[in-house]
Amino acid sequence: MLNSRSKLFSFKDIDNMAKNQEYRDLFEAEKNVLNDALQNISSGEYKDNSLLPHYRQLALNYKKLLKLSDKVISISDRQQWGLKQVESALKDLLDNAGQGFLTFGQDLRIDREYSAECRRIFNANIENANILDLLRAPDDEEQNILFANVFNGVFQAADETTRISYLKRLKKKIRINNRYIAIEYKLIKRFEQESEKEAVMLILSDVTDKHAAEEKINYLSYHDKLTGLFNRAYIDNFLYELHDEQQLPLSLIMADLNGLKLTNDVFGHVTGDKLLKNIAAVFQKCCRQSDVVARWGGDEFIIILPATNRESCESVCHTIRLTCQKAEVDPIELSVALGTATLHSFKDDMLEWFRQAESKMYQDKLTERENNRRRIIRALEKKLWRIEHENEEHCQRIASMVDKLAEQLNLSPDDKRDLHQMAFLHDIGKGVIPLEILEKPLSLTEEEWEMMKKHCDVGYRMAQAINEPKLAEAILSHHEYFNGMGYPQGRRGEEVPLIARIMAVVDAYDAMTNHRPYKKSIGSEEALAELVKLSGTQFDPQIVDLFVKMVRSAGD
Amino acid sequence: MVGINIEATKSTPEIKFAGNTLTIKGQSYPENSVSFYAPVFAWVDEYLEELDEGKAIFEFNLIYINTSSSKCMMDFIDKLQEAFSRGKQVMIKWYCDPDNESLLECAEEFKEDVEFPFEIILV
User: Fold this and answer.
1) Between helices A455-465 and A260-267, what is the axis angle to 10°?
2) How far is A7 from chain B (nearest CA, A)?
3) Could A79 and B66 be called an inter-chain contact, meaning their C-beta atoms sit closer than 8 Å?
4) How far apart (Å, rounded) are the C-alpha atoms in residues A377 and A466?
C-alpha cells in the first residue's frame, strides 16, 4: 500500500506520463488538475475529512485514466500514420499502374477513390459522376442502352451468377474521347459500416496504340499495300462466306495490266508501281461501292460484282477500257486485258467460273497484243523525243534513208520492217540518260561517257521487253565498229547485224549534217567524205559505198 | 475447459485457442469493440482462473486496430498483468512486421509497464 501510495503521489511520474511533448501538451490541463488534487491530499489540510479516502481513490483512477488515454492516443496515432502510409503506397501503385480503376454502387455514381488514369481517360474529375454519363457514346445509342440495362440489372439481380451474366453482355472495348479503351468489369463487395454491399469495378486500359496497330495488321492482311485494293486473302474469305442468294447473278472480271514488265524494265519499278496504282484507281472509279476490287497478284486483278448479270458486267468492262483510254499517258497508255464470267447459282463450280474469266482474259490479251505493242513503242518514242536532236524529224529523216537503202539491198519484208523500226528506236535507250548529259555542249567526262554508252544495253532490254529480239540485237550493236573497236561488245564485221551496220552509217550522216549541241553541222559532201574516210574501220565499206552513191544520185 | 474459436471478418480478428496458446490475428475495428471483446475477456478470465502450474501464451498478430480496440488490448494486458501478479505464468508474443515502424512503436507502447514476459517478434 505504501509503495502504491508513493507511486501515486510521485509528481515526477506525472510529468513523465506522456513521453512525447505533443501528448504532454495534450493533457496539460488534466495534469494540473491531478497535481492540485495530489497536493491537497498530501498537504494534511483535509486529513480529518471523511471524504479523503474517496478523493484519493478518485485521484488514483484519474491518474490511471490519464495514462491510459495517453497510451491509447499515442497508439492510435501511430496506427493511423501506418495506415496512411499503406494508403499512400497503394494509391501510388494504382496511379502508376497505367490503368484506370473505378468503382460504383447501386446509385451508379463513381466512388470517391479512383486512379489517376481515370482522370486522363475521361479528361475530368469523375467523383460522384454517373457511370452511364461517363461511358455515353454520342453516336451509339444501342451501346448506351445496353450499359444502362446491364448496370441497373446487376444491382437488381438476385444472385451472383445472374450479375456476372449481365456484365458479360458488355463490350470489352469502347471509344471514350476518341480513344480506344479496353474495359474489364468486376463484381466486388464493398465494406460499408459493418456490412458488405455489391459494387462494380471497372478496370480501364487505354489501348488506342494497340488498336491502331491491330487495325493496321488487319488492313494489311486483307489489302494490297501498294494499291490499297483488297488482296487475294480477302477474296478467298469473301467467296468462302458468300451464300446470300441476293448477290446472284455474281459476275467476275479478271484483268491483266498490259506493259507492267516493260515499264518495270524500262522505266524502273517506281514507275511500274505508279502504273499499278493508276489502273487500281481506274477500277475503283468504274465500280460500285458494293463491288469488290482486288489485286490478285503481280499485274492481275479481279473484280467481283454482286447482283450483276453478264450484260452489266460487259458494260463495266467497256467503261474500264474507255477510262483507260482517257487516262493520262504516264508513262505508257493504260491498257488492260479483261475477261468475264457470271455465276447464276452457288451450286455452280466456282473454279470453272474463274477459269472461264481467265481464259477470256488471255484471249483478249492475245487479240490486243499487237495494239499493245504499238502503244508501248509509241510511249517509248515519246520518251526519246524529249531530247532536242533525237526528235521525230531526225527519226523520219533516217527512216526515209534506210527505207531506200533497204530497197537497194533487196532486204526481206521482215528485215525492211525491222530496219524501219530501227530508225525510230535505235536510240531508245537514251530515254534513261539524263538530259544534261545528252544535251551537253562540251565533251563528256569519262564517267558521263560510260553512262552514255549504256544506252545500247538499255535499248536492247527495252526491245526484248516488247518481244522484238532481232531489233534488240541491232539496237545493242549499232555503235559497234566494223573493225571491232566500237562498243559495247567489240563485235566486228558481219558479227554486227546488217541493220545495225546500215543504221550506223545513216545515223552518222544525219548527225553530221544536222546541228547537235556539241557539234555544228557540216555539208553533205563533207559528211560523205568523212564516211568514206572511216569506211572499213568504223563503217561497213559496202554500206558506205552504197549510201554515198544513193545520196549523190538523190542530189543529182 | 471449452476453447474459443472466432473466425475473422473484415473488421474483426480471428481468435483461436490451441494447446496453451490463444492467438489473436488480423485486423480489429469492430463497430463496438467492448461488445466484441466481452466474450473473449470472459473466456480469458475463466481460463486464467483455472490455470495452475502451466504456462499460458497469448499471441497477438494484429495488422490494424482502431482506438477502441487499443483500449481493449490494454485492458487485456492489464488482465494478464494482474494474473501474473497472482502468480500465474503468462507471456505475450507480439508479432510485428519489421518494415512497419509504426506497428513496432505500438508494440513497444503496449509492452511498457508490463512485468511479465512480453516478446516482440519481427516476422
Assistant:
1) 180
2) 13
3) yes
4) 8
Q: Which residues pair with B96 in a beta bridge?
A: B122
Residue B38 · residue B75 · CB < 8 Å: no
Q: Do B102 and A79 touch (CB under 8 A)?
A: yes
Q: Name the one residue in this structure whose C-alpha cell is 492540485.
A: A36
Residue type, A355: R
Dist. CA A299–CA A280, nearest whole Å = 11
**DSSP label at A223?**
B
* Sequence-ordered list of residues with C-beta below 8 angstroms from that of A234, at least 6 positions apart, any chain: A222, A223, A292, A294
- Strands annotated E in A136-274: 173-176, 179-192, 195-206, 250-257
pLDDT of residue A9: 42
| Amino acid residing at A190 | R
Determine whether the interchain pair B67/A72 forms a contact, defined as Cβ–Cβ distance below 8 Å: yes
SS (H, E, C) A339-377: EEEEECCCCCCHHHHHHHHHHHHHHHHHHCHHHHHHHHH
Which distant-in-sequence residues (6+ apart) come within 8 Å of A350 by Cβ?
A: A239, A343
Q: What is the largest CA-CA distance in chain B?
A: 38
Contact check, Cβ <8 Å, B109/A79: no
B97 shares contact with chain A (CB less than 8 Å): no
Residue A428 gets which letter from DSSP?
G
Comparing CA positions, the residue from A46, A56, A58, A63 lying closest to residue A1 is A56
pLDDT of residue A8: 43
Query: Using only C-alpha atoms, what is the Rg of chain A?
Result: 48
In order, the DSSP letters of B33-88 are: HHHHHHHHHHHHHHHHHH--SSEEEEEEEEEEE-HHHHHHHHHHHHHHHHHHHTT-
Helix (H, G, I), strand (E, B) or coil at B15: strand
CA A246/CA B16 separation, integer angstroms: 75
Q: Given phi > 0 = left and psi -120 to 50 = alpha, else beta, which region is A80? A: alpha
* CA–CA separation, B16 and A293 (whole Å): 76
**What is the distance in angstroms between the Cα of B49 and the nearest Cα belonging to chain A?**
24
Q: What is the structure's pLDDT at A22? A: 58
Q: Please report, as a single letter, which amino acid is at residue A87.
A: E
* Interchain CB distance below 8 Å, A71 and B109: yes
Neighbours of A36 (CB within 10 A): 11
Find residue A303's DSSP bridge partners: A253, A293
Report the mean per-residue pLDDT for chain A. Answer: 87
Would you call A4 helix, strand, or coil by DSSP? helix
> Best of A71, A85, A189 to disrupt the B interface by mutation (most B CBs within 10 Å)?
A71
Low-confidence residues of chain A: pLDDT under 70: 1-24, 193-194, 331, 383-390, 432, 516-519, 555-556
Q: Cα A257 from chain centroid? A: 24
Q: Residue A49 is placed in which grid cell? A: 475529512
Give the up-direction half-sphere exposure of residue A82: CA atoms within 13 A in the CB hemisphere. Answer: 23
Contact between A202 and A171 (Cβ < 8 Å) = no
Shortest distance between the Cα of B1 and any Cα of chain A, in A, equals 31
Query: Chain centroid to CA A133: how far?
Result: 35
| Burial class of residue B105, CB neighbours in 10 A (0-12, 13-18, 19+) | middle
Q: For position A268, what pLDDT does the model report?
A: 78
Q: How far, in Å, are A26, A74, A177, A195, B112 from residue A32 at the CA level?
A: 12, 20, 64, 44, 24
- Tell me if chain A has a CB within 8 Å of the CB of B98: no
Q: Say whether residue B110 is in contact with chain A using an 8 A CB cutoff.
A: yes
pLDDT tens for residues B69-87?
Answer: 999 999 999 999 999 999 9
